[in-house]
Specification:
single chain; 170 residues; Rossmann fold; two-stranded antiparallel sheet; 4 helices; globular
Length: 170
Amino acid sequence: MDLKDYIREIPDFPQPGILFKDITPLLKSPPAFRYTVDRLAGHYSGRGVDAVVGIDARGFLLAAPLALRLEVPLVPVRKAGKLPFETTAVRFALEYGEDALEMHTDALDPGQRVLIVDDLLATGGSLAAAASLVERNGGRVAGIAVLIELSELNGKDRLTGFDLFSLLEY
């Protein structure tokens, strides 16, 4: 199955000059969505993953079924002010601005091997921030998985030293 058939490109969203990769056609297709989760689960099964971190918001869509398939806890990493309990925060640069991510301070047990999941790797800011949150909260990054990697933005350069797995490259 060619997953690129299920990715829609939207020019100038959320601002001029950005070519947005829309994954909603993939989510609309149960076979394509299942194939995506199966590929991710197949790659990480048996690799000692103790928890899956999903990054707000589209990362949740892939992380939740993946955590269920791997039979490990799901840990949400959210934009600032969205989590109800005590949090740790990290600020980071986006492809088109700046933002912050937060994680509950009790989300991980010390030494847990954590797989970080998001829909897209652009500049690597949000994934690097999530890795920092995992490490600050006592976890170890076991891997970083994305559906789409925008290779021309060199986001993987910010993730040196981490095991990065992407299903699609643009």
